[in-house]
What does this fold into?
Amino acid sequence: MLNEEKIYAEMRKKWEALEFTTDDIVTLHEYELAKRRQMKPVIGLDLDGVIRHNNKSLGTGDIPIEKRNKKDLLELYQKGLLPKGYYCTKPEDVIFIDGALEALRMFHEQGWDCYVISNQEVVSLLIYSGVFVEKKHAQQVECEIGGKFLRLKLDMDYAIAKSGGLIKHWLFCPHMPEDNCTCRKPKPGMLLELETWYDVPLHETYYIGDNPSDMEAGKRAGCKTIHIVLPTAESEFRQSEFADETAGSLLEVAKRLVARHKDK
It folds into this structure.
């Protein structure tokens, strides 16, 4: 093991004695590289389309981009026109993608921390279990709706743990695109919070998602990005200039990463 305290103490002593040289800079650089090689990978995950089936993975269609705003989405919801799996609002919507639970178990067996980072605008839309909340009552029930969504999260936690996996923390953005928040992907806010709150090394983090916005957020945060390309998704979701790698499923990613880091 590297003796970090001893190395830095010796370097500080040299610095204070004005004996710090270019060779010492090289030594520190080599030490940092060695320390980085010892670090375990961190796994960042989108939820929908990676762990849980959504409309893209189910192949039930999508909403035109010009309709992805609060007014139009609520209208589509009220008319029953949202594609199956578009939102996670009730227990029946939690359908795990084949191999996802096995992949999470594999990550946990390697001792790799897993985090879910997901846009969940359904919370701000105040839709839950087939109930639409009128705007005039929104403030009264917003916390309750958020709490019910978190109940679904706890149900998923239980199923994942029962299969041998573990999600260390979940981060959700509840905002709509027009809210112009700092956390909604493709902005990197939630990933940067991982670094700030949980001391997660983003340069050692693989961020895995099925949406180009996931890839952009991951790249902007300094992560390694893996794009789950779903053949059932619309063409706009099947390519991203920000993806370092592509795969067909989370299980494929898990097998690849375990093999890649086997001897490290």
Q: What stands out?
A: Residues 1-38 form one domain. Residues 129-142 have pLDDT under 50 and may be disordered.
